[in-house]
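Budget justification aside, the reviewers requested a transparent look at the raw inputs and outputs of the sequence design task funded under Objective 1. We therefore reproduce one unedited record. The lines immediately below are the structure tokens for a 441-residue chain.
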């Protein structure tokens, strides 16, 4: 009895560690990949291919510039409702959310969230007309991230047609603010302030096309606009007084004298400058925008401290070098972007399941680091990965961005993502009678 008790305790510990019942993550993926319901879902992805392509084109041609995602969000809201998701809403930040209830909690959570960002990098007024040449679609934002948004709908349709009910509740999200100045505002709200804050147990971000990559590391960033001010004056008549542009130059020179670590990869960039009055004036105000990045929260914090010290030193050096009779130089560091670094460990259940699902569909599974919506849950210790929607693509963020929608490769890639999500959310083993009933449809 004692041996049996210890055996049960050991198995329970394994189950708690993997989150997949009694099976290992890899075994769970293997089981699901041969489940008739999953195979039916795959067949639905194939038969609905044209509809998915139509959805990609439709979403691409609905403008979703930074901070202007509203029209696309409204289209997704209507689609979520039409597909029968419950609690469909657009939250106060602009995210579209809808729940597909699981068997255990019936829509009350905790949730496995599956998200695709709605926004693009392209400004309002950009020509979004999709050009088609065979299986190739080309348009701004077609792959980043209209394809992923359309894939969420395809997965929901496939799950419904296959009568697949997960154990955990699924939360589908079309989120805003992933790109650039959006600064992950949609997912920050989702995890920190929105109605689902504290209720999400795992997170899949669907972003881009390539199904072979798994983003398990979130590259953190801190972005500053530094305003350098001074008294200003005539370039000839006031010559000899302090110049904020000299302090700015000193800050850039000091930054580029740093030798950041290569592992973890840590980088910086002095990216944008501006200000001044005229060529014959000592400026009263200039600005510098800087991007600091690292895979490691500690390395990013150290780089941040170094940069702040460099700015302070550059200001002090300029004030000591020239006259402050009419005023001194000062610098104000304003944060214009902040993305926390984080990581989902390779040995975690969600990574092992996702890796196995990708391999099961015939792809390589390469772990990567990037800056995506997964940064936020990773930084909070919530299991998260970013995966591709399936298929090939290129020229992201360029006007001639393109994707390939050839059905075989596209469906294989979509199947890998769906299999990973099902493994994480859990699917009860199928009884023979249920199997016969589904197959007779």
């Amino acid at each position: 009895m004692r041996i049996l008790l210890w055996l049960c305790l050991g198995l329970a510990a394994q189950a708690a560690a993997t989150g997949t019942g009694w099976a290992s993550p890899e075994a769970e993926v293997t089981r699901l990949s041969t489940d008739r319901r999953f195979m039916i879902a795959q067949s639905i992805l194939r038969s609905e291919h044209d509809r998915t392509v139509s959805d990609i084109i439709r979403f691409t041609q609905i403008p979703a510039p930074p901070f202007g995602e509203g029209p696309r969000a409204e289209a997704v809201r209507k689609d979520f409702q039409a597909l029968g998701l419950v609690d469909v809403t657009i939250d106060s930040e602009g995210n579209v959310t809808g729940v597909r209830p699981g068997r255990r909690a019936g829509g009350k959570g905790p949730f496995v969230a599956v998200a695709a960002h709605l926004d693009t990098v392209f400004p309002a007024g950009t020509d979004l007309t999709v050009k088609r040449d065979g299986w190739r679609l080309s348009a701004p934002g077609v792959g980043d991230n209209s394809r992923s948004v359309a894939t969420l709908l395809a997965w929901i349709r496939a799950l419904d047609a296959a009568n697949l009910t997960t154990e955990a509740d699924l939360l589908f999200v079309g989120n805003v603010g992933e790109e650039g100045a959006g600064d992950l505002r949609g997912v920050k709200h989702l995890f920190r302030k929105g109605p689902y804050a504290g209720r999400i147990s795992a997170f899949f971000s669907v972003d881009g096309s390539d199904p072979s990559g798994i983003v398990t590391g979130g590259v953190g960033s801190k972005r500053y606009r530094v305003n350098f001010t001074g008294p200003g004056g005539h370039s000839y008549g006031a010559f000899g007084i302090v110049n904020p542009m000299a302090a700015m130059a000193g800050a850039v020179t000091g930054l580029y004298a740093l030798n950041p670590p290569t592992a973890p990869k840590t980088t910086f960039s002095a990216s944008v400058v501006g200000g001044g009055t005229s060529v014959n004036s000592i400026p009263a105000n200039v600005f510098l925008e800087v991007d600091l990045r690292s895979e490691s929260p500690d390395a990013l914090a150290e780089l941040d401290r170094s940069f702040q010290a460099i700015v302070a030193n550059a200001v002090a050096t300029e004030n000591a070098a020239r006259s402050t009779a009419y005023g001194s130089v000062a610098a104000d560091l304003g944060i214009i972007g902040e993305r926390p670094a984080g990581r989902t460990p390779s040995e975690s259940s969600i990574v092992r399941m996702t890796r196995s699902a990708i391999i099961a569909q015939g792809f390589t599974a390469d772990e990567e680091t990037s800056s995506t919506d997964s940064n936020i849950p990773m930084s909070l210790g919530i299991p998260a990965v970013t995966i591709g929607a399936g298929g090939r693509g290129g020229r992201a963020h360029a006007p001639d961005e393109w994707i390939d929608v050839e059905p075989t490769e596209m469906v294989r890639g979509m199947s890998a993502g769906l299999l990973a999500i099902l493994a994480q959310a859990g699917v009860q083993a199928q009884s023979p009678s249920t199997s016969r009933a589904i197959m007779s449809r």
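The chain is about 40% helix and 25% strand. The first strand starts at residue 86 and ends at 90. Computational costs for records of this kind are itemized in the attached budget.
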